[in-house]
């Protein structure tokens, strides 16, 4: 599988560039000379080193304003591999992931994180490659009182933290349907809503359309004590209008919990969420799982490769981008990790005022054109050569 040996692209740069060259690289690539790294508590850093898990923290300050006070929020992004093999009983697999993630959440709490987001379908292997219904559908759970929600609610209320929990959802009220859903739990431990993945991939090993349908929740933005947040789940990041609508609804931070692999998308990863932050004047937080997941039975893909049992390499590399386009280095490509970013949400409006992207976006023009484009007798606006 592609490049499992490379730990991190950012580390590769740091190792090979020094002095003025490194500063110039930082200025042009990250959008700022200094990465504004914030210190992690010694004991947390130590825990990470001893447990093969990375923690880093960066600051995104905004300009001082006369009238508004800074609106500082700490976000935490968790990326992780599964904890035990996929042929173990479902409950054991989930419990093992809970145990692993619990320690990372405790560190996030200790570092003062206000809004925490986990990766796509965080409490299970990404078994949608297999197309098998059994046993994987058994991971599907209620957004309100399923095991993942109950597990995370405790942390949310105990530590006053908003938590975004992307799960495989079972909706018992609507005929036991299954969805790919991000559940939002507020700092009192209450589920304040959910967002269902709008765009379902049919590419490579991502056979997700066997399990769930395109989401029916629109583009909700959740008002929280720590800002207006939204979630664009994985494959939705390839759709600029999906990002756009979260911006239109007023998001200040959009999380992109994902599960994607090296051969398919790694060259797109650093571009898409970053571009969305620039185009929509909000912060984006892109999270990807890590590791290679092996399944008991061989499965096939849409790309003609021989049947195989391994799905991955999921390349991690979670990162945060600010509305001004500056970004953090990515987390590791191979290790579990916690990326913390301290954001001043005032930057969203400051960048809207500076660049005017939202003011100039011509929604009316596109709405009219799109209304035409969806008609069955649509004629594209093309002019003949002569
Ligand atoms: N989970 C998911 O939607 N993956 C699709 C592949 C990609 O978008 O990179």
UniProtKB/TrEMBL annotation:
<dbReference type="GO" id="GO:0033396">
    <property type="term" value="P:beta-alanine biosynthetic process via 3-ureidopropionate"/>
</dbReference>
<protein>
    <recommendedName>
        <fullName>Beta-ureidopropionase</fullName>
        <ecNumber>3.5.1.6</ecNumber>
    </recommendedName>
</protein>
<dbReference type="InterPro" id="IPR003010">
    <property type="entry name" value="C-N_Hydrolase"/>
</dbReference>
<dbReference type="GO" id="GO:0003837">
    <property type="term" value="F:beta-ureidopropionase activity"/>
</dbReference>
<dbReference type="InterPro" id="IPR050345">
    <property type="entry name" value="Aliph_Amidase/BUP"/>
</dbReference>
<feature type="domain" description="CN hydrolase">
    <location>
        <begin position="73"/>
        <end position="345"/>
    </location>
</feature>
<dbReference type="Pfam" id="PF00795">
    <property type="entry name" value="CN_hydrolase"/>
</dbReference>
<comment type="pathway">
    <text>Amino-acid biosynthesis; beta-alanine biosynthesis.</text>
</comment>
<dbReference type="InterPro" id="IPR036526">
    <property type="entry name" value="C-N_Hydrolase_sf"/>
</dbReference>
<comment type="similarity">
    <text>Belongs to the carbon-nitrogen hydrolase superfamily. BUP family.</text>
</comment>
<keyword id="KW-0378">Hydrolase</keyword>
